Amino acid sequence: MNNEFAKDVEKGLGDKQKHISPKFFYDKNGSKLFEEICNQPEYYLNRIESLILKRSVDEIMNILGEKELSIIELGNGNSLKTRILLQPFLANLKKVCYFPIDVSLKMLKISIKDLSKEYVNLEIFGICSDYISGLMKMNDFMKLKNSIPKNKLIMFLGSSIGNFDPKEAKNFLYFLKRYIRQEDALLIGIDLEKDKTILDKAYNDKKGITAKFNLNILARINRELDGEFKLPCFEHKSFYNIHKHRIEMHLVSKQDQEIRVGAIEKSFHFKKGETIHTENSYKYSQNNLNELVESAGLEVIQSFTDPRKQYTLILLKKVSGTAKS
Ligand code: AVI
User: Is 37 in the pocket of ligand 1 (CB under 6 A)?
Assistant: First the structure.
């Protein structure tokens, strides 16, 4: 049994506003569904981020100005976007090492296998782990192996930082700062605030893939925790909460019902219309973004944005003179 998942479900379904952490979306099915979401016409995030990456890769390379580089990617998924950087970096630098860090062993294995075939001169060190322990492992490993480039670029793409609330996002950036030196950089993808209609559509695609992705968390409880959720008795709901600057994703109970979760030996009552809050996806204004970066003791070296200012990639470094934390 996945104890962390069991604990999260027990606590989350017992709270007044029921909730489950979005990190549990990504089992084998969930990761596949997320890939499908990224291909939906309404979900602009990945498409725009890839375009920005293509347009800015040369500038990023010039700014970094390194001969050798270790690229660390948090939550690489299928590493599709990473290829946009890897190709030119490998063509222009003397040595590139790539550390993908991902919780899904299956995805990690597939992307390492594919990348090794495509780029014979790329050294890949995959780490199957959550971000925090993955970074610690990467750091220990780099200390042991002298042949690994010391210059680092840590990437956190796809606006995954938006799934943290602003305080968590600040703490996470602050934590990342520990793993970079003055001469290293972070590359972070962030979705920007925009028209509510565009946002609502992106999280309510016509084909219903986001709905399947959301409902999969209940199917996962059934599979892994001996749960008795009847999926047709719940429905996907997501909307942009303008006041909180975030997309909220919920699962709405369509009727009064009692659901047993065998692995934790508990039943949970749902009233008709009651929801399980499954995800927040924060969207940043330029001001909120500046505040986030500053509060973490970082500064923007350069930001790259699409012409309609829908999405941004920011290249960050430690504020000069920041003490090592
Ligand atoms: C992974 N993360 C950045 C996605 C997002 O947009 O918040 C997850 C997602 N949830 C629904 N659609 C996509």
Answer: yes
Distance CA 47, CA 41 (A): 9
Distance of alpha carbon 310 from the chain centroid: 18
Pocket probe mutation, ligand 1, options 49, 161, 163, max atoms within 8 Å of Cβ: 163
| Side chain identity, residue 175 | F
Token pair for 276: 């399980």
The first and second tokens of residue 181, run together, are 């030196």
Classified as helix, coil or strand, 78 is coil
Which pLDDT score is estimated for 321? 67
Chain segment 130-147, per-residue pLDDT in tens = 999 999 999 999 999 999
Determine if ligand 1 sits within 6 Å of the CB of residue 160. Answer: yes
281 lines ligand 1 (CB under 6 A): yes
Q: Is the beta carbon of 31 within 6 A of some atom in ligand 1?
A: no
Ligand 1: distance of its center to the CA of 322 in Å?
A: 32
Structure tokens at 190: 């962030």
Q: What percent of the chain has pLDDT over 70?
A: 98
Closest approach atom of ligand 1 to CA 34: 13
Task: Tell me the pTM.
Answer: 0.95
End-to-end CA distance of the chain: 36
Quick check: 47 pLDDT over 70?
yes
Q: Which tokens sit at 126?
A: 């995959």
Tell me the one-letter amino acid at 173: L
Distance between CA atoms of residues 89 and 102, nearest Å: 22
Strands (E), the chain: 18-19, 68-74, 95-102, 123-124, 127-128, 152-156, 185-191, 234-241, 246-253, 257-261, 266-270, 275-282, 298-305, 311-318
| Token couple for 311 | 């999405």
What integer is the mean pLDDT of 69-74?
96
The whole-number pLDDT of residue 325 equals 47
Whether 260 contacts 270, CB under 8 Å: no
